[in-house]
Write a structure and sequence with these properties.
homodimer; alpha/beta; TIM Barrel; four-stranded mixed beta sheet; 18 helices; globular; disordered N terminus
Chain lengths: 513, 513
């Protein structure tokens, strides 16, 4: 994609038409600005110490016996009559610094490799929503067709770095084999980095095998590169279940990337107070972190922050709130304290692609970006607190992510950029449009938004008063037209299909439904 | 207003009903976070030096002879054959530091006094739009009725600090007497700080007289307090016209606040390059700054930043763009370099209260707030690049400003806030809702947005799928119901009316239309 898009960025390139959707080139985007710190150094340390106290005095319920063994052998206090595991602060501290601060996640197309850490920023697509929507078809359960189209959009837009899950659940793939069929489809439709779901060991192992196959390595090859990511959720408060613990262990053993993400709603799964919710999230992260480093010191992980609040009148979850922004930024401070890459999200609780969806998303984005996030999950398409992937919201988010990319491009200060000669030539009361200084630059001087309608009222009115989400509807269809399936060697594709078919024939994963 | 609202914030207060729109109390809001710096120290100095070079080598056209005299006597190079005035860098540097870093702008109700500077943040209402709109009446020319209602909204909402102009132009007041009638109305409908328009000396003097009268000082009283603000726009590039120069001089002489705001669109009235536009803005600000300090050293002024870009395809102005955010933040850095209070704006170019209006506004707001703005002009209601004041957008913005207020409220970290006892009581796999820790706090733990609809899809669908702007429509009407006219002594009101009537009988201001 990168090659094609760079060509597209030029002028008058072969096959370029004015109807192409404006795209910035694929890049390893960096955030050049200092993150916003919402906690003082003292507060940060106090929260760290509170987390240690939680781990020592309250502990975490560890549901997987093998994980208990790991923790026990590393010096944790494992209760023999319950699942409770407690950790001495010195033990916790001894693990901090072991995990790498930067991870390179490889794509099957090396141009899409992701450097995750330092001040790099990557945007992921929405994932794992049960429903999907667009203006034409309304809200409907996730299905193969929409799943494929969302993967195509995520592949098509350069600003999206990876396919970090199923953008929508393809519910018409049976749960016992969905991970096989959906992962196969993603590999066929995209050449960006992929995710396995940590829902039992076999699903993860299948995903890793398929990721190996996708790059021409044999099914049984040994690989030490990081070619798969997974999300590890904590069952907040303070429980790590079998599947997640298996995931941490398996990913550490195979040098794959675990994104440790307690998801908590303050007032429900965590204290109603932000400091308490952050301390609990941090304790949960540290517990998961320790296990990965016990299994393999130096195993790649990310620190995930995902605290929001509930509407205390109705209990409904809220996203993109001022409280969400503060905890996103605080999470970034903790990740940096531990020298870990940081994951945040682009979220909102709106039912429509209206003003609410936009302001909640932009709040989330500022929290993430100025919180120092290295990976933004759910970057494009997330709606209704994660219950819907919206095609129109996807385009709106792509536009927002491109705007953030532009914001993160520093102001250049040089003689040419200061343009004092142009200012002198124009002089007082003059106009800059016709100057050479302007004419040389105007085509690329500013980011041209995909959706923003800057016509005057009269022109806009004559055009039928189109709203943002209506334009997004036409743009997503145009993007699907423009989409080009990336190359996949026929032999690799055959091997991939054969593997999936064999695993399906074997029955996939046992499920109870 | 503050008193009434604080009561309202309590529980079960007299007259409190559940239908009241949620308001945060009036406060001198502070920004506790470090501003985002988009320019390095070196870049900042380079831009400063470029501005000095513009002032020395190109100069500014100064159209008012009296202003030329002031500049000449202070050592500027005044061209005898043109309006051009040039400034030696040493002269410019000699004025830096003279203006106060903090100004207190007094309201007729002392509870609404504004401390402007340091890390205080104040939000103003939209001003000076020629049109007004709401869902019911559509887009229409500014008029008395809508003008009055917008002033009422600005008075009603605690988050709005001042009435920094006519929220919409009451075009049915004749231009020759509009300033008298509109300022009288504002004083009657609101007790927050006010603005005079710098459109000729008489208008400013009349506004200052009316501000004196409004606080029971006589029409001819001497006053050294700052009780009026005005905006000084530069005719970019590099021209200060008669009216603006008269304004700077008059405001300095009377110790009133001039908000120096070059308004430029990069690529039109300033270089297409951001560094060039910032350097030009800075030169223009410094020229106006010097005049105020020549007239009265220590006269109160603000540094205003207002650079946006144009759509280079159509020439349409754009607002709330990534470029806008960067220049807003850069402007804040320059203001802090000169130790001046900083003014920014909440702007967008949308024709509808849709997703675009929201994302452009929230971008503007982040640029302003994290750029260190002390005063946010056009804080609520601005649409279409300033051509329309929207009632629905007003409410959306009030909600956003309250969310920023919440964001600017630091996370508290204390034993009670960390809530380790609650975490221990709840334990792994528990739920926090029923805990005492939660029950004691849940009513006030989180900001409850005015507009955000957090119902699940089914409930929202059954309610008719209301969009954000539709709810805003009902809320603005509710706010007008809740509005209470502030007290104004009958004798003051009589004196105010008598003054206005006399000035109208005298003919107001000569106009050519």
């Amino acid at each position: 994609m990168a090659r094609r898009s760079r060509r597209r960025g030029g002028e008058g390139g072969v096959g370029e038409t004015s109807s192409k959707i404006y795209q910035l080139p694929r890049q390893q985007l960096k955030n050049p600005y200092l993150p916003t710190e919402v906690l003082s150094e003292d507060q940060l340390e106090t929260i760290h110490l509170a987390s240690l106290k939680i781990l020592k005095e309250i502990g975490i319920d560890i549901l997987l016996p093998a994980a208990k063994e790991y923790y026990k052998n590393a010096g944790a206090d494992v209760d023999s009559n319950s699942d409770r595991v407690r950790f001495d602060p010195a033990m916790v501290e001894s693990f901090i610094g072991l995990a790498p601060s930067t991870v390179t996640l490889l794509a099957r197309n090396p141009e899409n490799n992701m450097i995750i850490g330092e001040n790099y920023v990557h945007f992921d697509t929405v994932s794992s929503t049960p429903n999907v929507s667009d203006i034409d078809g309304g809200r409907r359960p996730g299905n193969k067709k929409d799943f494929h189209n969302l993967v195509r959009l995520a592949q098509h837009f350069n600003v999206i770095s990876c396919i970090g899950g199923y953008p929508v659940e393809p519910l018409d793939y049976h749960p016992s084999t969905r991970h096989l069929e959906a992962t196969r489809d993603i590999i066929q439709l995209s050449d960006k980095p992929i995710r396995g779901y940590s829902l039992g060991l076999t699903r993860l192992q299948d995903a890793l095998t398929m990721s190996k196959i996708s790059r021409g390595l044999g099914e049984h090859s040994e690989i030490n590169d990081t070619i798969l990511m997974t999300t590890i959720n904590v069952n907040s408060p303070l429980v790590l279940d079998d599947a997640m613990l298996e995931g941490i262990i398996e990913m550490a053993k195979t040098n794959q990337l675990s994104i440790l993400t307690p998801f908590t709603l303050a007032g429900a799964m965590a204290p109603v107070t932000l400091a308490g919710a952050i301390a609990q999230q941090n304790a949960e992260c540290l517990a998961a972190y320790m296990l990965s480093q016990i299994v393999v010191p130096g195993a790649p992980i990310m620190y995930g922050g995902f605290i929001s609040n509930v509407d205390m009148k109705s209990g409904s979850p809220a996203f993109g709130t001022p409280e969400y922004v503060k905890t996103a930024m605080a999470g970034g401070q903790l990740a940096r304290k531990y020298d870990l890459p940081y994951r945040s999200s682009n979220v909102n609780a709106s039912n429509a692609v209206d003003a609410q969806s936009a302001y909640e998303s932009v709040f989330s984005l500022w929290g993430a970006i100025m919180g120092g996030a290295n990976l933004l999950k759910h970057g494009a398409g997330w709606m209704e607190g994660g219950l819907v992937a919206s095609f129109e919201k996807f385009i709106l988010d792509v536009d927002l992510l491109q705007m953030f990319t532009e914001f993160l491009t520093p102001i250049k200060v040089s003689d040419a950029e200061l343009g004092l000669e142009a200012i002198a030539d124009v002089g007082p009361a003059g106009h800059f449009f016709a100057t050479e200084h302007t004419q040389e630059r105007y085509k690329t001087a500013f980011y041209p938004p995909i959706l923003s309608d800057w016509r005057n009222f009269e022109s806009w009115h004559e055009a039928g008063e189109p709203k943002t989400h209506e334009k997004a509807n036409t743009v997503y269809k145009q993007a699907l037209e423009e989409y080009q399936q990336p190359h996949l060697d026929a032999s690799i594709n055959e091997e991939l299909i054969a593997f999936v078919d064999r695993r399906i024939a074997e029955g996939g994963i046992a499920t109870d439904f």
